[in-house]
Amino acid sequence: MITIDNYDFSGKKALVRVDFNVPLNDQFEITDDTRIKATIPTIQKILSDGGACILMSHLGRPKDGPTEKFSLKHLVPALSLKLGVNVKFADDCIGEEASEKASALKSGEVLLLENLRFYKEETKGDEAFAEKLSKLGDLWVNDAFGTAHRAHASTAIVGKFFTDKVCGKVMQAEIDNAQKVLENAERPFTAIMGGAKISDKILIIEKLLDKVDNLIIGGGMTYTFTKALGGEIGNSLLEADKQDLALEILKKAKEKGVNIVMPLDTLIADSFSNDAKTQVVKRGQIPADWEGLDIGPETAELFAETVRKSKTVLWNGPMGVFEFPTFAKGTNAIAEAVVQATEENNAFSLIGGGDSASAINNAGMGDRVSYVSTGGGALLEYMEGKTLPGVAALS
Ligand code: 3PG
Ligand code: MG
Predict the structure, then answer these.
(1) How many angstroms separate the alpha carbon of residue 21 from the centre of ligand 1?
(2) 3-class state of residue 317 by DSSP
(3) DSSP3 helix / strand / coil % (the chain, rounded to 5)
(4) Pick from 74, 165, 194, 275: most CB atoms within 10 A?
């Protein structure tokens, strides 16, 4: 695989697939710029070599062609500011405007193309569409780790039309860090799994049972475990058909000598809202009509203690509904413990994309862990051992 650092971009126009699928609010302001920040070193390397960048990405999941809400033009000011370059924009990712602006591009300049998913051909992995994109640049750089699990035209197919295919810095770092955790973890190795559903995490959990010393289970998926073990969970999230699976995981963990750490208490609410009435109860003792929305304080301390003693920490998924400040305490306590493990115990800490990345950034601690992944589904699939089409396309 050719990496960014051993490629000379001088005089070249690099067609760079980035993952600029960032959250925007109603005023089209970026609410989490992790993914944009992450790609800056890749772009800067190309520019400082004397090359030019044609950036392409998707944003959201537009259904019917061009939509204001999903336009990448909203990213131009933030991107220009971060790069210190006036980023140019093409209203379409293929066609006359895109090719004129791409061919007029001079060394040191950056052009951002409109959302690739305004064409259905993108998600279909259409060859003719990929070929049109390929005409815009001299070589292809794939830096879109977050979209590498999709076999789309710009992530997996476009590479066919280039001799030079280069692995971007984000892509490289993501793979290196995931490998480090999976293959070279210093012990004790603790994985913290949260989030709503067991079904989303089952494959990664099974994989991790062969690797970790401690597996902390928090977040919405806990209630299915608790119910399966005979506890009362009131109105809490439940995947009724996953209870056997939950018991199976616990059994396998025992066989493999993995220490499973489950909540001791739960912060419950009488409705799904930030202003709900709340109380703390023991795990498995949630009254009817109440629901668990966060781990309780005893649990937060138990989890934090386990994390602080670890040398490798992988965290994927929040501990509660952290979008509501009332129910963010558990997630924030974990974020703090991961930072402490990193700073005071010299641990390697990998925060697995998606909600966990937003949670640690919201808590203002994203810079104090070893690495915050830009991938959600992509990181999980990579760690499950799947071949990602976007990575395979680079070799
Ligand atoms: C993501 O945010 O998960 C990636 O950007 C991929 O987007 P997708 O899930 O809509 O394919
Ligand atoms: Mg996704």
Answers:
(1) 7
(2) coil
(3) 45, 20, 40
(4) 194
Ligand nearest 58 Cα, by number? 1
Give the model confidence (pLDDT) of 103-115 as tens digits.
999 999 999 999 9
> For residue 144, which atom of ligand 1 is closest to its CA?
5
Q: Judge whether 216 and 192 are in contact, CB under 8 Å.
A: yes
Whether the per-residue pLDDT at 296 is higher than 80: the answer is yes
Q: Whose atoms come closest to the Cα of 61: which ligand?
A: 1
Contact call for residues 387 and 370 (beta carbons, < 8 A): no
Give 175-179 contacts, CB < 8 A, sequence gap 24+.
175/145, 175/382, 175/391, 177/350, 177/370, 177/371, 177/373, 178/350, 178/373, 178/379, 178/382, 178/383
- Ligand 1: centre distance to CA 123 (Å): 11
Which residues lie closer than 8 Å to 201 by C-beta, 6 or more apart? 193, 195, 221, 316, 317, 380
Please list the residues that pair with 52 across neighbouring strands. 13
Q: Is 354 a catalytic residue?
A: yes
Q: Residue 267 carries which DSSP code?
A: E
Question: What pLDDT does 355 receive?
Answer: 87
Average pLDDT over the chain reads: 97
251 to each of 16, 233, 244, 255, how far by Cα in Å? Answer: 46, 21, 10, 6
Pocket (CB within 6 angstroms of ligand 1): 19, 21, 61, 146-147, 150, 376-377
HSE toward the beta carbon, residue 81, CA cutoff 13 A: 8
- 35 annotated active-site: yes
Ligand 2 centroid to Cα of residue 368, in Å, is: 25
197 catalytic residue (yes or no): yes
Q: How far is the CA of 144 from the centre of ligand 1 (A)?
A: 10
- Concatenated DSSP letters of 82-129: HHTS--EEESSSSSHHHHHHHHHPPTT-EEEE--GGGSHHHHHT-HHH
Decide: helix, strand or coil at residue 139.
strand
> Of 113, 32, 41, 92, whose CA–CA distance to 364 is shortest?
32
Task: Note the ligand closest to the C-alpha atom of 60.
Answer: 1
Active site residue 330: no
